[in-house]
Amino acid sequence: xxxxxxxxxxxxxxxxxxxxxxxxxxxxxxxxxxxxxxxxxxxxxxxxxxxxxxxxxxxxxxxxxxxxxxxxxxxxxxxxxxxxxxxxxxxxxxxxxxxxxxxxxxxxxxxxxxxxxxxxxxxxxxxxxxxxxxxxxxxxxxxxxxxxxxxxxxxxxxxxxxxxxxxxxxxxxxxxxxxxxxxxxxxxxxxxxxxxxxxxxxxxxxxxxxxxxxxxxxxxxxxxxxxxxxxxxxxxxxxxxxxxxxxxxxxxxxxxxxxxxxxxxxxxxxxxxxxxxxxxxxxxxxxxxxxxxxxxxxxxxxxxxxxxxxxxxxxxxxxxxxxxxxxxxxxxxxxxxxxxxxxxxxxxxxxxxxxxxxxxxxxxxxxxxxxxxxxxxxxxxxxxxxxxxxxxxxxxxxxxxxxxxxxxxxxxxxxxxxxxxxxxxxxxxxxxxxxxxxxxxxxx
Length: 444
Ligand code: PLZ
What we know:
13 helices, Aspartate Aminotransferase, domain 1, binds ligand PLZ, 2 domains, 16% strand, globular, 38% helix
């Protein structure tokens, strides 16, 4: 299997997007539904390490990892080799018709590496949204209850149930209702915006949530609490310390299934294998996707055996869930994460980024908050009184893009710049990317 090495240096030889990309963009507009956007429409030819190459010969620094997917880098040779080997043997039988070992192997690995040493089971699916949908199905079936609790700023997907779980209307929900019922939204422990200050945020937010669940829904009616242990699309909001453990304790005491949505935070991204590990939180069910398979579409729900096995035979599934090629890629990618100590590398990336960004924030008051863990770091841009500054963000992003830095935004108010580099990016590229970002602020 010939895997071409992608040179690890930035190269900007045309305007960005260049002429060939603009030509492709014209074809795309005529062929692809307008509803699907692209952050930076440079058309990709190759990618690897921390670099994305485009049709015009540019080499861009990747601070996005395809939204936290290519944790092991793009086209990791081990992932490519295992997937290709599987592709050459069979492409599909459907696990529900004729099963295969690759699926079982991924479930065994997930049961081993997810938080908690209790007995677990897993199911494999295609996308993060599908994983979250299935976690809710499992929780409802196991508890015989219906209500689902979610949080402000949450993102869980674009399917009907997960749209209902997602907080932000535009662009995710506008015009797409009616939404699924029995979804209840609670305040989020958002330290930077907590009225009485970050130090009070954890306990106060937990008390509010517990009070609202008890008074407005009735704890006995709640099947599941679903939460991202660091919110992704919502703006990399790290819940204040103590919040998650308090919610877990309340769930345990009331027979509520605690579901950690680790679709964006999973697989070494945050400097732990899972973000829950940070405070020793053990979820009853955990949903994963993105970083699981080095870029191939795969997702999973993993959880307590008694909950997972509570669903009647034939109650869960899907034609493509646990596709053999995606499973082979996942096994290779999970092995790479462990053998290359990408957890450790994510921590190094976090230290480097947080150090530089905190300095940058001292020079530029428009950077109101620097937060995140590991290779999941964000800055929140504000005017006076912490008013969100989405226009400044647009300016900064546009400059960074023009210089060949792939950078994403996030946040309910569209004022958060998020950084999610592949965990295999080198320090040189990281620093060069941060230099470009610093230039962008200097030019404001
Ligand atoms: N849960 C926590 O972050 C996907 C969405 C991008 P899918 N996040 C990126 C977009 O605009 O569509 C995500 C997530 C969390 C669930 C999902 C959904 O995962 O694989 O996109 O369905």
